[in-house]
Structures are given as structure tokens and as C-alpha cells.
Amino acid sequence: MEVMIVVLIIAVLAGIAYASYQNQVIKSRRATAAVCLEQRAQFMERYYTTNMTYVGAPAPAACDDVANFYTVSFNGAVGARTFQLQAVPQGIQASKDTACATLRLNAQGVRSVTGSDTVANCW
Question: Which Gene3D superfamilies does the entry link to (predicted)?
């Protein structure tokens, strides 16, 4: 009987620990996607410095670290002085990270999300 109680306690603790671990994995992938957007925005600024326009800039490449979990792309058309980048969750990230969903960053450095959570919590 005592062994059964110990096994039950271990099972409950393992269930809680695994759920917490999964939450941290989702958050770390989101943070990596945010860094990827920042890197792509820096590339766009370098492109603008050289060409004095964002038009003609190549589509953002996916970052290796998040390629399986996020698709990085432009959101809409790129203007002479404007652009908006987005990281759209894919696969398991899309199903588990509904509070933040798509991360966005524009030419002015304004961050946004399409989910129900706040920008401060998602970025």
C-alpha cells in the first residue's frame, strides 16, 4: 500500500514537471523567433542604408533554429519606407502557443502579436 502511494505521488509530480517543461520549450522557441525577427529587421535596415529604399529587399530567410516551428516572412507588401516582418507558428508550436500566435515587427520597431496575450508577455 505504501509503495502504491509513493508511485502515485511520483506520477503526479512527473505530470506537473512535464507540463512545466513543455511550457518552457514553447517560450524558448518563441524567444528564438523574436530574435530571428530582430535579426531580419537589422538586415532590412542595412539594405535601406545601401539602397535608400526597402523595395527590392530579398524575402527574409528562415532562421535555422526555428525553421521547423516558425515561418518568417513579410506581412504585406514592402514599401519604400515601410515593411512588416512576421513569424507565424507552425506545427506543434501553432497548436500550443495560441496566446501569442504570430509575432510581428515593423520598420519603426513596433512589436505586435495576433494572439490574446500582451506584447510584453510574448516578446
Answer: Glycoprotein, Type 4 Pilin (3.30.700.10)
Number of domains in the chain: 1
Q: 80, 73, 77, 70: which is closest to 105 by C-alpha?
A: 73
Say what the pTM is: 0.84
Using a pLDDT cut of 90, give the percent of the chain over it. Answer: 75
Closest among 25, 104, 24 to 71, alpha carbons compared: 104
Residue 15 phi/psi, 5-degree rounding, is -65, -45
CA atoms within 13 A on the CB side of 6: 3
- In this prediction, residue 97 carries a pLDDT of 92
The tens digit of pLDDT for each residue in 53-71 reads 999 999 888 788 888 999 9
Residue 32's nearest CA partner among 70, 58, 59, 60 is: 70
* Residue 51 structural domain: 2-121
